[in-house]
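Collaborator request log, item 7. Partner lab (contact: R.S.) asked for a structural prediction of Polysaccharide biosynthesis protein to inform their binding assays.
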Amino acid sequence: MGYKQRILLLVLLDSIIVSTAIFIASWIVYPNYSLENMKVVAITSIALLLFHHLFASIYKLYHKVWAYASVGELIAIVKAITFTIVATAIVQYLFNDFTIYKRALIVTWLLHIMLIGGSRFVWRVYRDRFMHDKKNKKRTLIVGAGSAGAMIARQLKNEQQHNDLLPVAFVDDDISKHKMQLYDIPVAGSTAEIPEVVSNLEIDQIVIAIPSLTNAALSELVTICNNTNKKVQMVPKIEDIVSGKISVSSLKNVDVEDVLGREPVELDIDSISEYVTNNTVMVTGAGGSIGSEICRQLIRFTPNKILLVGHGEFSIYSIDMELRNKYKDSDIEIIPIIADVQDRERIFEIVQDHNPRIIYHAAAHKHVPLMEYNPHEAVKNNIIGTKNVADAADTFGIHTFVLVSTDKAVNPTNVMGATKRVAEMVVQNLAKSSKTKFVAVRFGNVLGSRGSVIPLFKKQIEKGGPVTVTHPDMTRYFMTIPEASRLVIQAGTLARGGEIFVLDMGEPVKIVDLARNLVKLSGYTESEIPIKYSGIRPGEKLYEELLGEDEVHPKAIYEKIYIGKTIAVEQDSLFELINTFTKHDKQQLKEHLMDIVYSKKIKKVESVN
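Returned to partner:
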């Protein structure tokens, strides 16, 4: 129906309702009409019609979508009708010898509200009850009968044409809500009873609607839900919900990050602000997973200028556009810079021109098997690239230089780990004589990074499997990208020079358990998406270590941040590697790297602490 047709239909309907209401009210109050009574009724009817249309227009009763009518629309109806009756009473007073037929107007007011409200809300009732095909909907259990659960239930019911979910029950651990109803949906029990409720009510899908859940509690709840073999979705975490509004479109699949992620670390805002606010900061590898997240975290502290340095054109363009769109109203100068850290002259030019207060060096080649096949590129990027940026920081007196390192630098068995360990040695040696505070921050795998196993597993699941795991005993430490980035930034404020900070990664996780979790969270069973073992790849270890127990100071200097007791190397050995690595073949270069990392010439030194 067109807009004009709809307005005309509503005006005609309201005119009939108003006329009917006044005549019924007059008949109820004054059953024996006289000619004089009819004259008053006619004047009152005309006044009611005119004023009703006037106030209906003022309160936009002809412009509302009544299929989604709720309390707000009911209040608008009551206001419009009340003002209509009051205005009509004034007309009666003026044209009927200062007499108002109060009882007739009160009955008219009641009938008016009943008929106008009924005519509007009957459409919503009809739509909800009869217009939608509930047979093809997925019967949905909502976990959490609080405000978030109520919003989800209401929107699922109101937007049935645009979603395939039909809410049929809640579960909630608040006993006072049990056997109660919310939007005509029963609270069927507690979270412990989810398997039973799913079975009894033939549930097809589960939605977790408790945005304030801690990661530990969410993990426990997801385990219960996974045991039902039904698809599980959730509303975003509370910190991700803008303005407190939850929409159906915001429902997301439960990710491994949600289950494995830990509680967020409270940052020392003052110390970070001192380093970042109104200063220039530089991030190398700004287009990568860690580098881009460091940029997102840093820009919240309103630096005067942020330098996005990277070799990949598209990745730098992406983070540049993201930050510009999000902070378009700020005075922060965002400068995208295409540069290769291997280009010493270019790096020196950037540092000299912009003079950043702090440099976060996240640029690196991190893929273990690829670096086994390409050791010369690993040396050029991870060692020489680090030396170029670090030397530039030293030459131009930059306040702090933070190297983003890896757990694979500990007792390395592969090229990538060895080159990152040598990169640590480079900054440690510079720290001995430089005014710049040089530090390295070491942590394990990050969930969701482009090089992690999670994207690979997801692609394999989308294709129907199998999910390939290298070995049943393969274990790794995991941390979310935002947590790792926040701790890297925090570690930079703790630097005094020469430290290797070690981030507390929690307990190691078996890769096969990660794969099983992901299969279940994707709504499949292992019989549908099998897991197969492909064998350990070149350079891989069954487990990683951040530092041996005897190499870590037992007391954290900040929540989840420790200082490691590290080893340095004679500078001559580093220069020898840099000057001669192109002359070696792959095997010779690998042996040379391991000689430096494990050389007897290396002497143990305890970092500044």
